[in-house]
Amino acid sequence: MVPKDVHAAITTIETKSIIQFVDWYPTGFKVGINYQPPTMVPGGDLAKVQQAVCMLSNTTAIADTWARLDHKSDLMCAKCAFVHWYMGEGTEEGEFSEGHGCP
């Protein structure tokens, strides 16, 4: 995969109206290519592949998912669950109270 292939794919999506973009969407896409194949953990759930794709986008379509994750994080924080793991990695206890209001 080379940058021109990525840009050609984006142009195809825009011109063929495969995806309906709103009229006011930004005029460009930011593209970065990592030429290293993804790391596979032996015995893990993921298959070995030569290429992978990741897309970051600004959308409200996943707002409910983020809200559920935030709620679960708050529940864990209220019980101080897993805090010892983070502190063992160097996170200071005060950072939890700043970020989530943990006791």
Automatic annotation (TrEMBL):
Gene Ontology CC, one term = microtubule
The record's listing under InterPro entries reads: Alpha_tubulin, Tub_FtsZ_C, Tubulin, Tubulin/FtsZ-like_C, Tubulin/FtsZ_2-layer-sand-dom, Tubulin_C
Occurrences of domain Tubulin/FtsZ 2-layer sandwich (ranges)? 2-70
Q: Name one Pfam family in it.
A: Tubulin_C
Q: Which residues form a coiled coil?
A: none
Query: SUPFAM superfamilies, alphabetically?
Result: Tubulin C-terminal domain-like
Q: Name one GO molecular function term.
A: GTP binding
Q: Which GO terms describe its biological process?
A: microtubule-based process
Annotated keywords: GTP-binding, Hydrolase, Microtubule, Nucleotide-binding
Reactions this protein catalyses: GTP + H2O = GDP + phosphate + H(+)
Q: Which PANTHER family match?
A: TUBULIN
What's this protein's family per the entry? Belongs to the tubulin family.
Which protein is depicted?
Tubulin alpha chain
Q: What species was this sequence derived from? A: Camelus dromedarius
